[in-house]
Amino acid sequence: MAKAASETQDSSNKALKTLLWTGLAVGAVAAINAAIFHRTPPLMYRQTGGQAKWLPLPDGDIAYEVAGEGKPLLLLHAIGAGCSAFEWRHVFGPLSETRQVFAPDLLGFGKSDKPRITYTAETYLDLIADFIEQAIGQKTDIIASSLSAAFAVALAERRPELADKLILVCPTGLQALSAPLQPSGKVLATALSLPVLGASLYNLITSRPGLRQYLKMRVYATPEPVNEALVTHFHRAAHQPGSDRVLPYFLGGYLNCNIVEALIALPEAPKLLWGAAASETPISQSEAFLDVRPDAQLVVLNNVGGLPHDEAPEAFLEIVAGWV
User: Fold this and answer.
1) Neighbour count for residue 304 (Cβ, 10 Å)
2) Closest Cα to residue 51, out of 36, 31, 67?
3) What is the C-alpha separation between 245 and 108, in angstroms, rounded?
4) Considering the entire predicted model, what is its pTM?
5) pLDDT of 266-316, one tens digit each?
6) Distance of alpha carbon 139 from alpha carbon 146, whole angstroms
7) Is 144 buried (19+), middle (13-18) or exposed (0-12) by CB count in 10 A?
8) What is the pLDDT of residues 40-87, one digit of tens each?
9) Contact (Cβ atoms closer than 8 angstroms) between residue 306 and residue 275
C-alpha cells in the first residue's frame, strides 16, 4: 500500500508540475502580448494634415480630421489590421482645396476608441450615419475603400438624406465579404477573441515581417511603396491598445455586408475605381457590380493595387476631380 501511495503521490506531483509550467508558459505569452501593445508608441495626432477633432458617440469617441470649404466629402478607410484614415494622406490635402473633407478613423481603428464590443456591419452603418449627422451636419458625397464601400452603399440606400454621390474604391459586398454570418464564423470569432490565443495569433499576423509581406503581396502592386516608414505606421496602428478587437469579428464574417438590393435601389449609380492589380478584391469582381448596375462608370488604374489613392494619388485625383 505504501508503494501505491508513493506512486499516486508522484503522479500528483508530476501533474501539478505540468500544470504549473503550463500556467507559467501561458502567463509568459500573455505578458509578451501585453507588452507589445503597451510599448507601442501612440499614433501621431494628425495623419492627413487636416484639423484634428473628436466626436463622442455612444460606443466611443471618433477621431477625425477636417479641412477645406465647400460641399462636404467623406473619406472612409478600408477595414483591416493597421488601417486608418492614414491611407488618404496623399489625396486629403488636394481634395480639400475645393471641398470640405472629413477623414475619420472608424471605431476600433487609428486614434479612435476601441471598445470591447461585438463589431458588426450595423455597428459601422450606425457610426457612419451618426458621424454625418453630428460632425458634418448635411448630405455628403462619399469616397469609400474596400468593405467601407459596401457600408457606404447600404447607408445611401437606407438613409438617402445623408449620402449623395458615391465613389467606391475596390469595393466589396457582392462577391467578397457578402455571405451571411455562419455558426462556424461565430466559433472562429470566439476563438480569436480568447486573451492568449487570439492575441498571440494577432501579434504573429501583425508582426513587422508579417505586415511587410502582406502589404507587398496583397495590397500594393509593386514593392516600392512598402518602405520602413509605411511598415512602421501600420505596425504602430495595429498595436494601439484594443486594436486587436475588430479582427476576430471581421474574419468571422460579422462585418459582411451584402449590397445587391441596396445597389439596385440607389437612384444614381456609384462610380467605381479599381486597381488592376488588386488582390483582396480583384478586378474580376467589378463585373458583378456592372451586372447589377450597368449604368455604373468603371475606371481601372493599371499597375496599381488595392489602395490606388495611396499608390497612384495623382491619377486618382485626376479621375475623382471629374466626379466630385
Assistant:
1) 24
2) 67
3) 7
4) 0.88
5) 999 999 999 999 999 999 999 999 999 999 999 999 999 999 999 999 999
6) 22
7) buried
8) 788 865 677 889 999 999 999 999 999 999 999 999 999 999 999 999
9) yes
Cα–Cα distance measured from residue 245 to residue 198, given in angstroms and rounded to the nearest whole number: 9
Dist. CA 171–CA 120, nearest whole Å: 18
267 phi and psi angles, rounded to 5 deg: -65, -30
Cβ neighbours around 294 below 10 Å, total? 8
- Contact status, residue 231 vs residue 215, Cβ threshold 8 Å: yes
Q: Residue type at 190? A: T
The residue type at 98: T
What is the spatial distance between Cα 310 and Cα 226, in angstroms, rounded to a whole number?
A: 11
- DSSP state for residue 75 in the 8-state scheme: E
Kindly state the cell numbers that stand for 20: 504549473
Of 128, 134, 131, the residue nearest 147 (C-alpha): 128
Distance in angstroms between the alpha carbons of the first and the last residue of the chain:
89
Q: Tally Cβ neighbours within 10 Å of residue 135.
A: 19
Cα 116 to chain centroid, rounded:
16
